[in-house]
Design brief:
about 70 residues, alpha+beta, 2 helices, about 25% helix, globular
Length: about 70
């Protein structure tokens, strides 16, 4: 429904312990919603329904796009 304007990454918390620590991942699954500037919009611990994720993502997609350079 969101097309190319949404990027979804699935990461293993053990393999990416640095990111897990940065975002306070305490349980699996955890979903971190970032905006175009990589600012945290929401963190969901445990299963999150699609309608809740869609509501969390929508404000970022409505904002002007920002080009990010890889870190």
């Amino acid at each position: 429904a969101f097309g190319a304007s949404l990027h979804v990454l699935e990461l293993d918390a053990l393999e990416h312990a640095d990111l897990a620590a940065r975002y306070g991942v305490l349980t699996v699954p955890t979903t971190v919603v970032l905006d175009g500037r990589r600012a945290v919009m929401a963190i969901n611990y445990g299963f999150t329904p699609a309608n809740k994720l869609a509501a969390q993502v929508q404000p970022s997609l409505a904002a002007p796009a920002h080009v990010l350079k890889s870190a």
